[in-house]
Amino acid sequence: MVAHRHPAFATPRVFAPVITPFTKDLRIDAPRFVAFCRWLVGQGAGLALFGTNSEANSLGLTERHALLDDVIKAGVDPAHLLPGTGSCALPDAIALTRHACEAGCAGALMLPPFFYKGVSDDGLFAYYSDVIQAIGSDQLRVLLYHIPQFTGVPITHTLIERLITAYPRTVVGIKDSSGDWANTEAMLRKFPGFAVFPASEALLGKALPLGAAGCISATANIQPQAIASLLNATTLEERAVWEGKVATVRLAVQAQPMIPALKHIVAHFANDESWTRVRPPLTPMNPAQSGALLQQLQALDFSMPAMATLATVAA
């Protein structure tokens, strides 16, 4: 089935599920968050705010509303924003998605409701349909979020086809975080025009020739420019060089607890220990883990340009 490729996703892009800094009392540190968002955009990345690696499901509804407003008020173009708006509670999903739509964001990245397991495609179709109908805007663009190892609620190809058929100009893409290349490949082949985003830049070498829309990757938080360079490569040789660089960094980081690892790397290169804070039930990396990871990255000659300037941001 041929889907409608929205112009916002016509050119391959990288989006970072932006990690969220916290103050000592575990409130959101909005100034640091905004500064980091601006750094990411300057490095060529879009912003998938409130993704898994943003600790989104540890953030309250009002916190997410306020933080999106803070980013836009700071001058970040909403066209760079793809906030996560899925929720277990339908009213919360509607409120978050409406807010993203009214703010002019490029789209809303929507988890399925993830508390009840074994739900049917009929139930999931009703969930997404109810959100779309409640908002009732031609400007709304929804991207599905398939991460069954966390949600326990897979987004099937049958459900994708039903949603594309019912809402061809609204349901425009998906992030596939399953880690199952066979599933990603099947979606790329089955739904041409549908914006399929693998969750790992290490898959782009295989995914881009099949029409992938880019990637929405945890490690875009730390290597946005390298991934953007891969997406913008104009020759096979150039692409191969960038593929090797981004894949080796990705493999080193994903071998660790991802969220604490990303935060520790940012803390190191920003020279700002406050970035290591996570909200419970997560815990920071221990010294052995963090030391080994930084040694690996040093061996790869890894760096994050201009990150030291973020350390001047007041908490």
Number of strands: 7
- Share in β-strands: 5-15%
Structural class from helices and strands? alpha/beta
Query: H/E order of the elements?
Result: EHEHHEHEHHEHEHEHHHH
GO molecular function, one term: 4-hydroxy-tetrahydrodipicolinate synthase activity
Active site: 145 (proton donor/acceptor), 175 (schiff-base intermediate with substrate)
Keywords: Lyase
Binding site for pyruvate: 216
Short description:
GO terms for molecular function: 4-hydroxy-tetrahydrodipicolinate synthase activity. The chain is of the alpha/beta class.
Topology:
Blueprint: E1 13-16, H1 30-42, E2 46-47, H2 61-73, H3 90-102, E3 108-110, H4 121-135, E4 142-146, H5 148-151, H6 157-166, E5 171-176, H7 181-190, E6 195-198, H8 204-207, E7 214-216, H9 224-231, H10 236-254, H11 258-270, H12 287-299
Parallel strand pairs: 1-2, 1-7, 3-4, 4-5, 5-6
Task: Tell me about this structure.
The protein has helices at 30-42, 61-73, 90-102, 121-135, 148-151, 157-166, 181-190, 204-207, 224-231, 236-254, 258-270, 287-299; strands at 13-16, 46-47, 108-110, 142-146, 171-176, 195-198, 214-216. By secondary structure, the chain is of the alpha/beta class. Helix 3 packs across helix 4, helix 4 packs parallel to helix 6 and helix 9 packs antiparallel against helix 10 (236-254). It has a four-stranded parallel sheet. It has a three-stranded parallel sheet with strand order 2-1-7, covered by helices on one side. The longest helix has 19 residues, at 236-254. The protein contains twelve helices and seven strands. The chain is globular. It is 43% helix and 9% strand. The chain has one domain (7-234): Aldolase class I (TIM Barrel, Alpha-Beta Barrel), CATH 3.20.20.70. Strand 5, helix 7 (181-190) and strand 6 form a beta-alpha-beta unit.
